[in-house]
Amino acid sequence: KQEVTQIPAALSVPEGENLVLNCSFTDSAIYNLQWFRQDPGKGLTSLLLIQSSQREQTSGRLNASLDKSSGRSTLYIAASQPGDSATYLCAGIYNQGGKLIFGQGTELSVKP
Amino acid sequence: GAVVSQHPSWVICKSGTSVKIECRSLDFQATTMFWYRQFPKQSLMLMATSNEGSKATYEQGVEKDKFLINHASLTLSTLTVTSAHPEDSSFYICSARRDFQETQYFGPGTRLLVL
């Protein structure tokens, strides 16, 4: 069964700290992996998409990595800010045109 | 570009009534739309995938007669929750995808509360 897991469920850090969010998936034959941000009561905003042939993607203070052999992806947030507070979801797709399989999310709180 | 809207954003209804939620792609044509459900503090669970002009494909455990999906045009899909009950109260999110692209663009969600 293809599953995506995120640990921890919640994380609180002081402003300015660099942090890493973890995502693991059970099937290494992943097609691509996406990281999303969800603010309370809102929809999802796509942050980064990593193709299976890629190892990482960067956008501003965000860097996402993908290690298929270990079944892991990480989202690195540099110099965190209170505005980064949100729930971060990772999701995998296992074939072209396939469905997104979501992790449970990590609720991040950045304290000023 | 790639904006997806949902209407309504909030709906409260009595048990037994039917509720229709609209999902629109505002600036692109969406050959495929997806409907998700999210319970508090939980992740998104895919309910069904709809392709324009054809019947929706429902995930295991989702009642197709209860959750009616129509994708009549390339910019509009609707989800109708028939004879809603309190256990149907949830956050419903749609997403849309262009043809030949992987990225899904998500709507802002619709919160349904059934009394």
From the structure above, extract its key features.
heterodimer, A: 112 residues, mainly beta, five-stranded antiparallel beta sheet, B: 115 residues
Question: What this model shows, in words?
Answer:
The complex is a heterodimer of chains A (112) and B (115). Chain A is mostly beta strands. Chain A has strands at 4-7, 10-14, 19-25, 32-38, 44-51, 56-59, 62-67, 72-77, 86-93, 101-102, 106-111. In chain A, the strands form two sheets. In chain A, strands 2, 4, 5, 9, 10 and 11 form a six-stranded mixed β-sheet that branches. The termini of chain A are far apart. Chain B has strands at residues 4-7, 10-13, 19-25, 32-38, 44-51, 57-58, 67-73, 76-81, 90-97, 104-106, 110-114. In chain B, strand 4 (32-38) and strand 5 form a beta hairpin. Chain B contains no helices and eleven strands. In chain B, the strands form two sheets. In chain B, strands 2, 4, 5, 6, 9, 10 and 11 form a seven-stranded mixed β-sheet that branches. Chain B has a four-stranded antiparallel β-sheet with strand order 1-3-8-7, with no helix packed on it. Chain B is an all-beta fold and 115 residues long. Chain A binds chain B through residues 32, 36, 41-46, 49, 89, 91, 93, 96-97, 99-100, 102-105, and chain B through 4, 6, 32, 34, 42-46, 49, 91, 93, 95, 102-109, 111.
The coarse silhouette of chain A is: globular
Largest sheet of chain A: 6 strands, mixed
> CA-to-CA gap between the ends of chain A?
41 Å
Distance between the termini of chain B: 37 Å
Please, what is the average pLDDT of chain B?
A: 92
**Helicity range of chain B:** under 10%
**Beta-strand percent range of chain A:** over 45%
Unreliable spans of chain A are none
Number of strand segments of chain B: 11
Structural class per helix/strand content of chain B? Answer: mainly beta
Largest sheet of chain B: 7 strands, mixed
From the helix content, strand content and strand pairing of chain A, which structural class follows? mainly beta
- Using the alpha-carbon principal axes, give the shape of chain B: globular
Number of strands of chain A: 11
Secondary-structure element sequence of chain B? EEEEEEEEEEE
User: What is the H/E string of chain A?
Assistant: EEEEEEEEEEE
Return Rg of chain A in Å. 13 Å
Biggest interface in this structure? A-B, 20 and 22 residues
Described by its quaternary structure, the protein is heterodimer
Helical fraction of chain A equals under 10%
Give the helix tally of chain B. Answer: 0
